[in-house]
Amino acid sequence: xxxxxxxxxxxxxxxxxxxxxxxxxxxxxxxxxxxxxxxxxxxxxxxxxxxxxxxxxxxxxxxxxxxxxxxxxxxxxxxxxxxxxxxxxxxxxxxxxxxxxxxxxxxxxxxxxxxxxxxxxxxxxxxxxxxxxxxxxxxxxxxxxxxxxxxxxxxxxxxxxxxxxxxxxxxxxxxxxxxxxxxxxxxxxxxxxxxxxxxxxxxxxxxxxxxxxxxxxxxxxxxxxxxxxxxxxxxxxxxxxxxxxxxxxxxxxxxxxxxxxxxxxxxxxxxxxxxxxxxxxxxxxxxxxxxxxxxxxxxxxxxxxxxxxxxxxxxxxxxxxxx
Length: 323
Ligand SMILES: [Zn+2]
Known about the structure:
Helix content: 55-70%
Oligomer: single chain
Number of helices: 13
Number of domains: 2
Low-confidence stretches: none
Strand content: 5-15%
Strand order of the largest sheet: 2-3-4-1-5
Radius of gyration: 27 Å
Mean pLDDT: 89
Bound molecules: zinc ion
């Protein structure tokens, strides 16, 4: 799927607004600092005059001028930092402010025409109907997780799954991890996927949530449209390159050879690109092996952290508690 011009413009306008806001903030900080530190302004003024002076020497063919200019400017920069620190401000207090240092709020990685991760995150949330996850996210995050519905072995499993989920979130982007939540209905699998998605979306990562049936239906619709291959190509790009995809309720789709081959391709392509995947299912491992190919089973059990959850159906439990 691709952005319409209008969607693209809206994202770019958003970046412009962020840059303007940050520039104003920076100017305010600058004015405040100069009021408290008149010497700061003098140092800034001398940086200007030094540059002009060395510029003239450079034009006159003085080869040492550039080196000396750099040394003089870096000495001035140091003095400015020391001044700021002398009134208890951090030394980078007046540096430019960026919400995303990777692209300096331009949407494109510096010096390239490659879209930044923060752009991709916005693109994906515009392109994919994320209503499912958005709704769940509003209610569920790590701080609202409750352990009261579990006891004994079930509680231990859930605690371990929460620990693994937190660890996954914390190290996201530095190492490529995959999670596989399995167990009976209503034991917290989708809840944990949502908590993870919530954290990562807030940090500006691109996350796409699919129900298994939704994912394979979409793939089938695009694949069998022989007249127009572009949407399928775009969809694959997102499916394979998005930083995290969540496939919820694997096994609720009509599993056939098309689904099996698409699932394997998806796992394989994402592994090649070192992008993370989270899968949840009500199937147990035996059912999983019987239902999908050996190579899928082997891929899942070898490159995913398996988290088994058990216990009563929390949704029924919660309903009963409310009554
Ligand atoms: Zn960025």
